[in-house]
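Exam prep: given the inputs below (a chain plus 2-aminohexanedioic acid), describe the expected output before reading on.
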Amino acid sequence: MVQEYKLLIGGESIDSSTGETFDDINPATLENLATVQVAGIEDVNRAVSAAEAGFRVWSEVPAPGRADVLFRAARILQERKEDLAVLMTEEMGKVLPEARGDVQEAIDITNYAAGEGRRMFGDTTTSELKDKFCMTVLRPIGVVGMITPWNFPIAIPSWKIMPALIAGNAVVFKPSSDTPLLAIKLVEILMEAGLPPGVVNIVPGPGGCVGKAIVQHPRISAVSFTGSLDTGKWIMEECAKTMKRVSLELGGKNPVIVMDDADLELALEGVLWGAFGTTGQRCTATSRLILHEKIKDEFIRRLVAKTKYLRVGNGLLPETDIGPVINKAQLDKIEKYVRIGKEEGATLLLGGNRADPGLPGYFFEPTIFTDVRQEMRIAQEEIFGPVLSIITVSDLDEAIEVANNTKYGLSSAIYTENIGNAFRAIKKIEAGITYVNAPTIGAEVHLPFGGIKGTGNGFREAGTEAIKEFTEVKAVYIDYSGRLQKAQIDIE
Ligand code: UN1
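Solution:
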């Protein structure tokens, strides 16, 4: 018997108004893990009302008290890490060690955000007038809408929810329909840790209905979204109509530059992990390899040899390196890009086909194209699968020019043993993240995460920046002179 999950609104599991459900499918085995009720517009309204009630209670809890709830939640996440990781591999497909990493990232951001409960500093500063005190304080925004993807089923919701909570906000949360279970487990853990009812509410369902209702809701004050550039643009336009704050994280076309002075073995390991880890389904995945011409032939030969050893299969098996892609639509999209790459004249060096590990799920071979020119679609568009495009350059300036020739700007990396090259890349690459001698994936939770150009709209997640994402700053002036003092006029 497959379990049916209801909506979580006002601290209770309640039936949706639509009477519809969707299946939660294991992408490796195509087994149905659960059915989940689909929320409707009426349910989003109910969730917003519950969140408003939750906000009134939660925003009055002193921040260190809010932190206690988060610290407890982090402990429960830690206790259930293995169970959650196994469930994640079943629900989303990533290999078990990576699923453990995803849960660990949630634990880390929960602890980090909880720590902010005793920080969340404002500034004190001087005044141009006598006996006047000036400072800033942070206030919560109110009810925040969150729309999250499937590729980090617990880490990305945690990046958004935990900082929002420590700052005193309430949440209406639409998880990806590919990974609703991990989202539900996360919110259940928060409630078990003592989160008052209504502070986080879950409304699963399609973006076109539930996501839209969140984005357009007049009583939601901010939206935080991770997903595609097109959807992000639409959300930003819609949020303008109700003057919502919106923070966007919209993917990338992340380059790694390998210079002729690089430690090639180190670079090989980094490229393999960056391109094919998580089956290439990270916003930060390495999708363009920019190779210095002097080491090109040798590097490609060694890369192809190593990639051939990667085993595609069920992420629960210890021998698997690459799990399935998330669903049929994604598999079709990857196939389409392989076709496009061939038509554009790139050379398919390896892979390019569906893989068959003896399971009915959605598997694709690790795929490498070379002779890629920077204007080709496979060098410009986000594929979100195990496909790597190699572009050859003759020096660092050209490498940086190629790296920057994209509408995105999330992650980037350079492999070099030359400190000058490293610093020039740090200075010139247009991206929110640059790694030196490390792959494009692997951001840590206490640093800001996000990007420029088509990747985002200026906000950053994680780190202290996350507090800015979910707070309003107020300037406070306290005049204790006992008389009217006019700024800009009564100055001495
Ligand atoms: C994402 O792919 O959207 O830096 C997030 C990384 C992970 C997070 C990726 N810590 O690759």
